[in-house]
Fold:
Amino acid sequence: MYLWLLFCVSALQYAVAAQNVTGIDGWLRYARIPNADSLRGQVPGHIVALNDSETSPVFTAGQELMSGMAGILGANADVSYSMSEKGSYRNATGTLIVGSMDQFEGASIDMGEEPELIEDGYHIAFSGSDVHIIGSNQRGALYGAFKLLAWLAQGRLPQDSYTSNPDAPIRWGNQWDNLQDGGNHGSVERGYAGDSIFFKDGGVREDLSRVPLYARLLASVGINALVVNNVNANESMVEPRIVEGLGRIADLMRPYGVRLGMSLNFATPELLGVLDTFDPFDESVIQFWQDRTDLIYSHIPDMAGYLVKANSEGQPGPLTYNRTLADGANLFARRVQPYGGVVMFRGFVYDSTSLNQTEDWRADRANAAVEFFDGLDGSFEDNVVVQIKYGPIDFQVREPASPLFAHLQNTATAIELQVTQEYLGQQCHVFYYADLWKSVLDWDMRYEEKPSLVRDIIAGRRFNQSLGGYAAVINVGLNQTWLGSHLAMSNLYLYGRMSWDPTVSGEDVIQDWTRMTFNHNPDVIQTIKEISMESWPTYENYSGNLGIQTLADITGSHYGPDPASQDGNPWGQWTRADTFSIGMDRTVFNGTGFAGQYPAIVRNKYDNISTTPDDLLLWFHHVNYTYPLKESDETVIQHFYNAHYAGAANAQTYAPRWEALKGKMNQQQYEEQLYRLIYQGGHSIVWRDTINQFYYNLSSIPDEQNRGGCGGDFPYRIEAESMELDGYNVTIAEPWNTASSGRLIAASSNDTATATATVPDSLLTSNSSTYDVAVNYFDVAIGIAHWTLYLNDRMIGEWKGDMEYRLGHAPAVAINGDSNTRITFHDVKVRSGDVLKIVGEPEREDVAAVDYISIFPPGVVD
Ligand code: GCW
Structure:
């Protein structure tokens, strides 16, 4: 009876556990693998971690190995903390020993041939029935333990010894967390997964329970430091009450070998009211920073360093006092230098107020970084690393590598990547970064006509720097999935893997990740791999092509389509699109001169239109819409139309491909991701139509195939503005092209509104008796409107405008490309003459707006 009860309880636990894969464990679920039984006997069940201090990464390694082996293999492993204890275990066949090289030596354990390790590297050796995980330091030992567990979680255990060293010493995460809500974009700037896990109400959270879970994920892929606050930094960061809280955060990350870093506001002494200057040469300013740095290190002795954004986008900096950027960086570098800290000084410097598009053909934000850093190479302290965004503009869907990488031969550099998908669908569209990052990391600058890959420059190999590496803006939040969507987490995993070894294959990484995050089902692995690998070209197709940039709303959300927003403002993300032509002329001869910032071979390639690859054509050249491409027989404008139709069509396949995985993965993961893939399918059509309508309107050049939005009609649509309206008004979207045919309907008061239409014969040309019925509507953040769709008074469906709670992208504040979205009802029996009716119930600013209804046969992309 008792046993039976026990069985029921554990079966129940298993069932509950199976229902809840929230994402909180990321790829470290330690789920039981199919071949657990055969692997179990191959790993020693006795673990010796050569450090019994709970704050040490080696102690953590012991704990992880124990729980990992229990979960993955169902093994009843045990852990002790010295070799002398090991004898007390039963079934002592072999020992798994983990520790640093020093600890192995201290315990007189024969390591065999001494492995060649650099900082953070590790060696895994199989000697007889023993397994040794030897780190160059304690952090490396933990990385080795995570490596062993990753093998097991993927159902394999190599028997050859294995040595792994990181490609670069700096592998940092950046969080853009504000101390409180209501910063520029809420509590995490450009974060799409809820509030900060670190800060709340202007201070450090009491409840920091998410911090060790995050540090664990970071450590498992070799990320060794985390800057916890926004580069648009609050001056309070150095106040004693905050520093004390940062100390608590650092304590929670230390067992994972993740050191804390922090962003500083350059004007802190003045903003705090302590001094009336922040001149980096002023003795009292120097003393101020010395005192604060001493205070910080008294709480956090292993503080990784400072991150500084200066003289960019309104942030204060040394230029105010006619000091150079190097003077500014060195102010901090000298303070942290005795403590072993570094200063990550951002290369993202430009003046967002001085660029004049209409009067100056040569004005170019892309030029700014090299110009601002001109003449400074070599004047930075040794512990300064210039942190450079991958492209010269700002995390766009495609950019050439920043030329600044080729200008600093006597200064350490790091590349800045984004895991958060600021311009790339904000975790509501699938975007797997592998190939995009590779396009930059493998970019060859040909400095002095020698191989000069960006990845070799940042690793310090090309210019003999001992520092350098990687930073990525991650921006997790309190959401259980960390980033807002299950699939988005593959990018955090990828970031760790690629910053450790930039030559890894994106395909291998996504498959490894899928096995650990989902399961070993070959269909699951195959589908996630395919969708992920297609995601960049797909998104690029329906956003911005040929190097024109993302074409999102760039003055606000950076999310939905708004090609007009690029031009006519001082932000400098211009396209210079007019009625005949498009693109930034960045040539030396006639343009902004940007191409001339690259070393000669690269400069000549991109300065010359005939050798510029199509995918960066409009980045470097201004051409007519009718300009013929090299790699296809399209013109520029025809490529835009074709690519937008192709991209949106491919995005339509994601949800059905996912649905084929039903029952093959955990239900929660399945459903939450499906919701997003369906959303993406609808939003990709909004992207397609907005961009096509915009460029067709501008150029007046019709699509060769006469498709909707670019010269032809949308064959399956009933535009809402053509319906019979009661309580609805016809209005225009802002900008107009974010609505189909430019117009839509919105409730004219707070009362319920209706729109009706008779289905015309012309829409129902297929033999199918059932159709998909899609409604494009606008879901604005403030308020939750409600819609009901009827066919001949039979309800087809109802839905709410609650995406602001479900999706997490930048809140859609108006009727535009952020808020335009789609719901689709499948298998609806429709006959000509049927009456369609939409009933909208507005609430506050959510005015139950409708763009159109589309009725199309199954399988068709409308
Ligand atoms: O592109 C901009 C982002 C800002 C960000 C800035 C930066 C933190 O829109 O939100 O500010 O880049 O990288 O500093």
User: Anything to note?
Assistant: The chain has three domains: 31-164, 170-501, 717-856. The pocket of 4-O-methyl-beta-D-glucopyranuronic acid is lined by residues 176, 189-190, 230-232, 309, 313, 348, 394 (CB under 6 Å).
